[in-house]
Amino acid sequence: MADWAIWVVVAGALFVGELMTLDLILVMLGLGALVGAVLALLGVDVVWQIVAATVAAGGFGLGLRPVARRHLQRGPQLVTGVAALVGEQALVVERVDGLGGRVKVRGEIWSARSYPSSLVLDAGEQARVLRIDGATAIVHRFEL
């Protein structure tokens, strides 16, 4: 079998292996094997094919792999809806206790209850949203 064909078979096996692992290491070795195949087609000696394939695989691993991983990783998790209000600062607009009250969160007025239920927040105080329970914000005293 010709040298270039051996390199192509090795590269193909490495690419298939990459499909199993998905950590972008075998694909870099496969690209190095393709460099060896090109050199074999050009008639370069086997020792130089191996050296070039090794150097190319190392170069791809150090140069291309970090860029590829960065592009494949997900961005920050997007939080929407009422889950986005958890942790937000709220302004008490109507006395809040364990039974009810009103707060302003991100410009919207929400019904609210305090946590713990014995806590009383007067109008004008700052609070922090602990969770949203239906259409009611569960809040506690805002502390720096």
UniProtKB/TrEMBL annotation:
Domain of life: Bacteria
Subcellular compartments: Membrane
Keywords assigned: Membrane, Transmembrane, Transmembrane helix
Topological relation to the membrane, as annotated: Multi-pass membrane protein
InterPro entries, per the entry: Membrane_assoc_protease, NA-bd_OB-fold, NfeD-like_C
Domain NfeD-like C-terminal: 83-140
Chief subcellular location: membrane
Residue intervals passing through the bilayer: 7-40, 46-64
Matches recorded under Pfam families: NfeD
Name of the molecule in the record: NfeD family protein
Organism: Frankia umida
